[in-house]
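Form 7-S
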Amino acid sequence: MSTLPIGTTKGPGETPHEYTFVAPDPQQQVKYGEFVYYEADVDGQTQRILSRVTRRVPLRLYPDTFMADPTIPPSALAELLGFAQEAPTSDPASLFEITATILGYYHSSLGFVNPRVPPRAGAPIYIAPDEMLAEVLSRSRPGEVGAVHIGSLLSRSPDAVPIVLDARGFTSTHLAIIASTGAGKSYLAAVMIEELMKPNNRAAVLIIDPHAEYDTLAELQGKSLFDEETYEPQVRIYRPDQIKVRVSSLDIGDLRYLLPNLSERMHHYLGRAYGRVQRQYKDKWTKEQLIVAVRAGADESPITDPESDSKDDPTIGALIWRIESVLGSRVFDNFQSLPLQDLFRPGQCTILQLNEIPEREQQIIVATLLRRLWQARQDTVRGRAIAGEENYLPYPAFVLIEEAHNFAPAAADLVTTQILKQILSEGRKFGVAVGLISQRPGKLDSDVLSQCMTQCIMRIVNPVDQARVAESIESVGRDLLLELPALSKGQVIVAGASVNTPVMVRVRQRETPHGAEDLNAPKEWLAYFSAQQERQRERDNAPPGLTRRGANPLYRGST
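Output:
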C-alpha cells in the first residue's frame, strides 16, 4: 500500500479524541471504519498514531440544477460549464471532510496509548498499511497458543489483515455473540470452536445445542488441519435420549420450577419432604424416597413406611401425581448422570443436543450441569477433591450456550439465571468460562450480557435489541454500533478483552459443513411433487393386471 498521504488535517473534531481531515477520495478508499494514521512526537520518539474513520461529509456537491434532468449525467454538465476545473480534483463530488477517532500508538505491554494530542492543522494523514494493522489489531498471531483466527479485516481485501482473537480473553472473562436471525452467529461460533480444537489450543468445550445445529463439527475428526503427531481432537455428541440428570442433583428450587402452579400447602409438603430426604440420604436419594417423604406429610419419624398415612390427603395425592409425571421423564434418573470427566476433557468438544426436550427440562439440565461444573472446579482448585473422585476436574472448561435468552431472560429469574450470574462474576478465579449466543439481546438479562468482556456483534435491526447492546456493552464505540443494521451476513464487530481495539471482521469460511442452513421451502415443495409425479408415472406404466392401489387421489386417473 502506498505511503503517500491521502489527506490533510483540518483541525480538532467535536470531542477531544477526534480530528477532521480533508481528502480527495474519488475511489472511495477511505471507508467508514477504515484505519488511518498521523505521525507525532511522543517522549522524543516519532510514533504512528492510529485512528478509525467515523464520518464522511462531502465538501463540494454539484448544484441542484445539475440534477434536474436524470437523463444527463451531472459530470457532463460540469465539464460543459467548466465547473470541474474549479475544483481541486477532476470531480467536485470527490472531496470530503472526514472525521477520525484517535486510538493511539500501540505499546506491547499497555495496548493502545492515546497521546491526548490531535494532529496539528496541515499535518498529512496516511492509510494504515496492512502489515501495521496485522501487528496491532490482534493480540495473537495465527498458530500461537490461544490464537483463534476468525477472519479478516472487513475494510481490506479478504485475508489481507487476519483478525485473531486471544482465547485467554474470552475463556477467562466470557464471551457474547449477538445477532439477528440469519446473520451468521452459529457459523461464527462454529469457526471459533474449530480454532479451539486445533493443536495450538486443545480446549475442553461443552456446547449447549437446543436445535441440534452443531453435530457437523464431528467432521473435524480426521482432518489433517486439526491433527498433530500426538494429538487428534474428539467430538462427542449426546442425543436427547442419552442425556440424564440424577434426581438427587436437583435442589428445592429446581423441583418447584419443574412443578409449576403448586398451592401453598403443596409447597409446604414438598419443602418438608425435600429436607427429610436430604437429611436421611444426603445426595443419594431417589424419586421413590421423595414420594415416600411426601406421603409421610407432617410426620417427623424416619422415612421407612411407603404407606405411612397422609395418603388420604388430596393435596398430597395431587403433589405425588405431579412428581411422578415430571420426574418420570426420560431425562431424570435415580442413579445416572452425565459424568463431568466425560463431558469435559482437553481436546474434546462435547455437544448436548437438547432438541425434543421440553424447555423447562432443558433449563434444569443446564442449571444442574453448571452447578456441578462450578462446584467441581472450586473443589479441585481448593484441594477438596482428588484424582478419581467424581468432583475432580483438573483443567479449565468453556461452556457455549445457544439461545442464551432462554436461560437468562430479562423478564424472569429462572433456575439457570443465578448460577450463570455467579459463574460470570467469579468464574475467572476457578477456570470456568461461558459463551452466550442470542438473537434477542433485548430479552437477555442485562447483568449477564454486561459481564461478557468479549463481544461479537453481528447485524441487529430491532431498535430494542440495539438499545440493549448499547447500554450493556461499553467497549463498542457508538460509531460502530451505528453500523449494526448495515452489516451483511458473515460480518461482525468484535470488541473487548480478546482484541486490542474494536474491529469489523469478515468471518472466514468454516473447515466443517454448516449445520444450521435455512430450509429452501419452495425447492422442497417442488421436489415433493416431482417425486409424486415419478411414482405416478411408474404406476401408469405398470404391466396390465397389476393393481394400482395406493395411487394419489389428487392425480387424474388415480383409483
